[in-house]
Specification:
Elements: H1 9-15, E1 22-28, E2 37-44, H2 61-73, E3 75-83, H3 85-91, H4 93-106, E4 114-118, E5 129-132, H5 135-138, H6 140-163, H7 169-172, H8 178-187
Parallel strand pairs: 1-4, 4-5
Antiparallel strand pairs: 1-2, 2-3
Helix pairs in contact: 2-6, 3-4
Length: 204
Amino acid sequence: MSRPSARRNIENSIRRLGFSRVAGVDEVGRGCLAGPVVAAAVILEPGSRISGIRDSKLLTPMARERLYDQIVLCTETWSLGVVGPEEIDRLNIHKASLKAMRKAVVGLVPLPDFALVDGFSIPDLLIPQRGLLKADRRCTVVAAASILAKVTRDRQMLKLHELDSRYGFDRNKGYATPEHLDALTRFGHSSNHRLSFRPLSLLK
């Protein structure tokens, strides 16, 4: 059974209130043991049509790559926010995710009139916003942000794998797979790991 695509109903309802530049915002990498958390903010062109766009978690890697290229071509503007492992350990993952999303939004040129955010509202964001649970499955513009963030982060994890292949980042992308946990037992943490995470407790 095919997965339903995200829709533009909520985005369009906000446009009808007078907000012409509505950004979608999402992050990926929140539950990983290694690598950064990456957020994307996207403003789609009002008349754009992208077939099959949905939450990045519901797509194959090949479909994400294909949609990434289409989304980039259909954006008015887009931006990324990245927070690395050291800062994640310092802030905690929740605050680091919010910081990455805020960096993505304020990096948009021009700034949006309104932000639709997956999950939580972003603190200290001086534009109107709305946090929506499962927005990446409900709103096309947020699904677009999730795809840009996911593809960007996966590419970064492939580069980290090229520098240090011991942990299998090309396959697990930093998530707590059995292979990754076994590598941590054998080799310990690398500089790409989040020291505040306790992966071995998952085995108890």
